[in-house]
């Protein structure tokens, strides 16, 4: 009878209740397990914040590169969507770098309020990048039509005209950089305001169409002297802008994936700290 009672006491939950030392050991084991998971989450967030900070630098660098290196071409575009996308990237990159630093502070302090603020910043940056991605995608779809409608008109009506110095410089840079002449071909210049004016001094094309740029070299439009490119400058500029939009999209997607991981890690650590009685 006593042996059966002892068996009942040491069976199931009765054993844990009847033996205080077993309950304490189980509680200690659970505490150690929770602490180990929390430490792992903290290290994962540290690694994430380092990668996130570097990603912010890349995003900002791509935005600055887009505006500085090829910013002169922006005056040839009908809309400002391309420039807006680049500015959004610069803004998002700056926020990412600041947020990465705040994330490290939040992990060190282990306060729920800091982690909540950090999560909100990640979500805000994610939404900003989403807007930039949508703008880039929409602009990519309408890029070809916009260039066909706007670039030809800009080159034939505004080149070398008073008050249009920035457009003139952009067209010259475009033709020299991409080795092209005219929006579709060199014959487009024959109907331009500049070529038909006395200012052209009997040039057939602007001097920037020449393979070797010298004063008044545009008086000869022979293929040995000027660029004859299939599709003209429209095709070259369209491909250039499309490549830039793809770079912007790829960088945005990469950083967005990092952010999703960071938000998941932040939620898990937030929950662990919430369960921690200390």
From TrEMBL:
Cellular location(s): Membrane
Q: Which GO terms describe its cellular component?
A: plasma membrane
Predominant location: membrane
Classification via CDD domains:
CD151_like_LEL
Transmembrane region positions?
A: 43-66, 86-108, 115-140, 245-269
The membrane topology term of the UniProt record is: Multi-pass membrane protein
Alphabetized UniProt keyword annotations = Membrane, Transmembrane, Transmembrane helix
Q: Which Pfam families is this protein grouped with?
A: Tetraspanin
Cross-referenced PANTHER family = TETRASPANIN, TETRASPANIN-11
* Family classification: Belongs to the tetraspanin (TM4SF) family.
Q: What is this protein called?
A: Tetraspanin
